[in-house]
Amino acid sequence: MGGTDGLAGRVAVEGLVKRFGPVNAVDHVSLEVSSGEFLALLGPSGSGKTTILMSIAGFEFPDAGRILIGQEEVTWTPPNRRNLGMVFQRYTLFPHMSVLENIAFPLKMRGVGRAEREERARAALATVRLGEMGGRRPAQLSGGQQQRVAIARAIVYQPRVLLMDEPLSALDKNLREEMQIEIKHLQQRIGITVIFVTHDQTEALTMADRIAVLDHGRLQQLGTPRDLYEAPQTAFVAGFIGETNFCEGQLAQAAASGESVTVALTGGGSLPAIAAEALPAGGRIKVALRPERLRVLPATAEGTTARVAEAIYAGNATTLMLEGAFGQPLRARIPAGAGLHEPRPGETVRLAWQAADARAFRA
Amino acid sequence: MSAARTHNRAGRMALNAAAYAVTVFLLLPTLIIAPMSVGPERLLSFPPKGFSLRWYAAYFEDSDWLRATLFSAEAGLISAVCATLIGTMLALALVRGRLPGKGFIELLVIGPVIVPHIALAVAMFLVFEQLRLTGTLLGFAMAHTVLALPFVVFTVLAALYRFDVDLERAALSCGAGPIRAFRHVTLPLIAPGLVSAALFAFIISFDEAVVSFFISDLDRKTLPRKMFEDIDFNISPTLAAVATMLTALTILALLLGYGLKRSLERRARAAGTAPDPGP
Amino acid sequence: MSARRPSRFRLGGRRYSPAASLALAAPFLLLVAIIFILPLATLLHESLFVPAPTTEHYARAFAEPVYLRVMLRTLRIAALVTALALLLAWPMAWVMSRSRGLGLALLAAAVLLPLWTSVLVRTYAWMVLLQRNGVVNQLLQQLGLTEAPIRLLYTEGAVVLAMAHVLLPFMVLPIYSALKGIPEDYPRAAQMLGASPWATFREVIWPLALPGVTSGCLMVFLLALGFFVTPALIGGPQQMMIATLVSQQVREMLDWPFAGALVGILLVFVLALTLLFKRAVRLDRFVGSA
């Protein structure tokens, strides 16, 4: 289909700035998506992710920067001439048209003849596995079905790029997980470029080839799901993706990114860590330690001493609330069924971890 | 416990009784005219002393009444079309435009409602003489359009606020230009609101009495003005027939409007365009 | 005007330019300028500049006892009508807000039908009912309450009653929409927390209904102040209100400057009230409900 050959499905955002009054909703963001790639824009509300998507779609015009689709600059092109597919947060099916009429609408707008329109709409409907539903009204479909029709409508004219604005947020949890896989498979099958906005990190990790994490209009990190989880480059990314213990402290000397450092903790003691970014001398530091990377050992072993304040059993894992280590509360997670030591509340334990799992950031 | 429940139930029954008493108070004076209008005697009475349609015949045989009715219908239709058109344009500008002096325009919109009709009527009487608009269809259409506009604007505003703008964006992303997006998506979905607005405008014009009282002339007058004259001179039984027909027409118009709106809404019902929950 | 404005309109990239917006508003502005602003301005000009710049017409309205009495009567009747309408509207609005299905349809019809029935028809109905040999007098005699027919028309009581009837929908609808917005769990929660029914009403329901009550009272009071048809026909010259006085000055005395002054006084009053309670003027309550 449309976009697998070379550069046709490439999207580039260059130095994008968008202000709403005094607020920089998007602050000098640049990113590039290659043909056939699935990119997630991930961030909390107000991070600018939707504004970036709306600028690519043409519903917002930037205050600075350029947007390119394929080789062509489209910064000022109206949305109806960008030939992009878009799926909105609410289903936004036209309620006064049947399902088939909805899907045929973009073809009608492109002057495609009636017979071909119907044939292609039916094919698109089959692609999203709703072959029988063409004659119904949108209101007669379930939420999941409506969203699949919206996807069919967005791909029926074979756009190079499909934009999705939190398309699954209106669905309940089970259906959402099912649709995540289905959209991913569909994207791989037709080889379309997808830019997908979400605030749900699990969704982004599950679906995307690469994730752009945004906060306060700034691009924090752009990388594969594994990069973001294993090697976050800012404290925000470390805290936003997955769960993390932050230990605050200070650093005597400056350190370059990747260097081993020893952080003097505010709560007393010191902690060896890897600098995740360039760190200034004397600056305040946060060390991130993931709960599941802490190894919890019996009191007789070597390591940092801590006391178990609480143990929360959650089926696949047990979370321990620990006190007394580094002068602040910590969480540790012990997977179930691995035959690991599961201490009881009140017990004293020792903690150990790999030096590479403690990452130091600017606070 | 049970004492409290009895107390509660007594209170609820008293409220219900009061509400239904008020309902009767609201409806009875208008509805009691209907049986009285079919009485054969000059003196209206309830219950009627017999059955006769002579007062209805009197209406249909009097060219003065018929001319006034026709004139009102013409003014009503023109006002409904103009007010809906002008009001919809303004509502679009208010909701989606960047309108300089918006606060002032909003005040102008409610103006014809808060300014007493007597003030407007007398003022128009003064100016219409000079503009040669007194007793003309154009004069009535313009005056009634102004009086109906606040209701039209508010009705259309409500429809536009209920409309999910993402639907129009979806149409644009499907390749429709702004005009085709409006025609194929926005317009069909706000149509129920426009129908209500037009109906309101027609009824307002058709029933309007105060301005009509002042800007009519001897041979071009609206139905309410004609009624006003007749009431002032003598409470003639023909009026009872006219009042009954007008009430029936109002019921019919409300039912028609409700049915039309429902059927348009049924077509338009789905995500994003909630039908309004009013009675 | 309306407070609820989804932010998506502000976010939307499809806002019309100022020029396009103005073009859309132009027919409205033009019409309102000719048919609304120009006539009122001309009339007020009469009151202030004819024959020469003067305030004498305004002074006259307050100096002569006849006119002062009319203005005071207008205020009194408007206040009484508002109070009576509130009294009648409350139970109706309350029961409506707690009804469903057929009951609600009946009550709603009872409010909407009068709202959209000609004021003349309803006033005429009252005249028929209240006249010397009318239904009310017959009823009173049959019940033995009076010997001979009593005069009901052309009394202040008749004016207040008929005006309250005509204006009642404008009171019921805003109160209804305020009451409907109160979830049934609120009074339940109050009672669980120990409030008596009266305390629940006073502490929970009344404060939450207040915007609707204010809106209804304002609408009824404003409309009553300038009401013409009903007072003119039911009150007659004996119970003259300001609107009838204006009409008389224009049609019988041909005293345009004085009529202009009376209109000016009325407008100042109405505008002051409107600006004072700006947020209470909500037409959507009346149009959204049919």
From TrEMBL, chain A:
EC code(s) of this entry: 7.6.2.11
Example GO molecular function: ABC-type polyamine transporter activity
Keyword Translocase attached: yes
ABC transporter domain mapped to chain residues: 11-241
Catalytic class of the enzyme: translocase
Keywords: ATP-binding, Cell membrane, Membrane, Nucleotide-binding, Translocase, Transport
Family matches, as Pfam families: ABC_tran, TOBE_2
Keyword Translocase: yes
Superkingdom in the source lineage: Bacteria
Any one Gene Ontology cellular component term annotated for this protein: ATP-binding cassette (ABC) transporter complex
Catalytic activity: ATP + H2O + polyamine-[polyamine-binding protein]Side 1 = ADP + phosphate + polyamineSide 2 + [polyamine-binding protein]Side 1
Role description: Part of the ABC transporter complex PotABCD involved in spermidine/putrescine import. Responsible for energy coupling to the transport system.
Summary of subunit composition and partner proteins: The complex is composed of two ATP-binding proteins (PotA), two transmembrane proteins (PotB and PotC) and a solute-binding protein (PotD).
Name assigned to this protein: Spermidine/putrescine import ATP-binding protein PotA
Organism: Teichococcus aestuarii
Automatic annotation (TrEMBL), chain B:
PROSITE patterns given in the database record: ABC_TM1
Regions that span the bilayer: 12-34, 75-95, 107-128, 140-161, 189-215, 235-260
Residue span, ABC transmembrane type-1 domain: 69-257
Subcellular locations according to the entry: Cell inner membrane; Cell membrane
Entry-linked Gene3D superfamilies: MetI-like
Family: Belongs to the binding-protein-dependent transport system permease family.
Name of this protein: ABC transporter permease
Automatic annotation (TrEMBL), chain C:
Residue ranges occupied by any ABC transmembrane type-1 domain in the UniProt entry: 71-277
Localization per record: Cell membrane
Signal peptide start-end: none
GO terms classed as biological process: transmembrane transport
GO cellular component: plasma membrane
Protein topology in the membrane: Multi-pass membrane protein
One Pfam family, short name: BPD_transp_1
Name of the protein in its database record: ABC transporter permease
Organism: Teichococcus aestuarii
